[in-house]
Design a protein that fits this description.
4 helices; five-stranded antiparallel sheet; alpha+beta; 182 residues; elongated
Length: 182
Amino acid sequence: MADLATRTLPLGGFHGGSATVRLTPALPASRLSLRAKPDAVAALSAALGLSLPTRPKASTTSGTRHALWLGPDEWLVIDETDTDLLGLAASAGVLHSATDISHRNTAVLVDGPGASATINAGCPQDLSLNTFPIGACSRTVFGKAEIVLYRTGETAFRVECWRSFAPYVSGLLAAGAQDAGH
């Protein structure tokens, strides 16, 4: 029998934070990069079990599944369980483009009163609740890395990044958390 490679978690062993913010690696999740024209949105929404948002910075949630609007015809769908999102999208029976990116991405959960300051250590976006309310999401930069930022609570965010950028992003978040703690 041949030996098989074991995929390690990109942020295994990472712990960070300060007195005002917790940094936690997100558990592995199913992720789908989805593109579709407006006439396919209803069928894809039904197949995925949640309404795909159609407004900038918007997201929707149903149970453990989240759909984040990234552009007029683009979404990031995240399910915090091991769900076959690609198969669900295919069952919609409408023209779309879907790619399983479950192993390409990873995420860091940033939570606490210093969360916005921690993220602003590398992200120029205004994270005030008026401008970036709960449920808001965007593709943006964090230092030199592209991320998808999703506000999950008043002081809670999910920072999605490519696994190859995870050490850089988590290190910059850890430095930002230390600064936010002072």
